[in-house]
């Protein structure tokens, strides 16, 4: 599997420059953290890389395949799958059905449903309706469902939002295992800096639509520009 690259991405919403000349590469088997203050452009970049938002400038490439002209569905088929900040599950379907339905829609043989659910740390009764799950378990189910598409690359938009520190830590362990076992490339957009620092060897920092730092996580975290733009304002975590 080739690298996933966003190159020189620009996105404008009327007068708002959401992204300006942003480039980012994720290699197979790598976890990249994408951090920045609210409104920095993180979700917009995920939207562009997953085919949900057409950029004003730039391109998205999976190896030498251009993804920009593809629909979100086709981007997913090409191997780039995302989750959403707001969980979007089939509430009336059971936990197991949520995963199986997605695999079926894609015509994918799918991994064993139980294995996927276990991989994200969900256990217990998989015949419960998804709507009855706690918010954090719904987020885990959303990741399991994304994995049913057998992605080469997974773009996670704030997967630990609403989780306790312990749950976020468990999620981190699960994500690292997924990457190691399946060789998936992972982009992690997350405000929980404990989680980011524990799973991401490399960080990219956005500030008002521009990349202000990129590199090894410890170096980036210590960068005064990053502390001024973002980490100084983080109310919790190891920032
Ligand atoms: N559909 C849209 N129409 C107009 N402006 C938008 C739209 N989507 C995003 N924006 C603006 O683009 C900028 C980047 O937003 P984005 O949601 O990508 O930030 P973010 O880093 O994901 O923030 P958060 O951490 O709060 O999720 C913000 O100024 C936002 O208001």
TrEMBL record:
UniProt xrefs under Gene3D superfamilies: P-loop containing nucleotide triphosphate hydrolases (3.40.50.300)
SUPFAM superfamilies found in the cross-reference section: P-loop containing nucleoside triphosphate hydrolases (SSF52540)
Keyword set, alphabetical order: ATP-binding, Nucleotide-binding, Transport
GO cellular component: plasma membrane
Keyword check for ATP-binding: yes
Lineage: Bacteria, Pseudomonadati, Pseudomonadota, Alphaproteobacteria, Hyphomicrobiales
Residues annotated as domain ABC transporter: 4-233
InterPro entries: AAA+_ATPase (IPR003593), ABC_AA/LPS_Transport (IPR051120), ABC_transporter-like_ATP-bd (IPR003439), BCA_ABC_TP_C (IPR032823), P-loop_NTPase (IPR027417)
Pfam name, any one: BCA_ABC_TP_C
Statement: the UniProt record of this protein carries the keyword Transferase: no
The name this protein goes by in its record: ABC transporter domain-containing protein
Superkingdom: Bacteria
GO MF term list: ATP binding; ATP hydrolysis activity
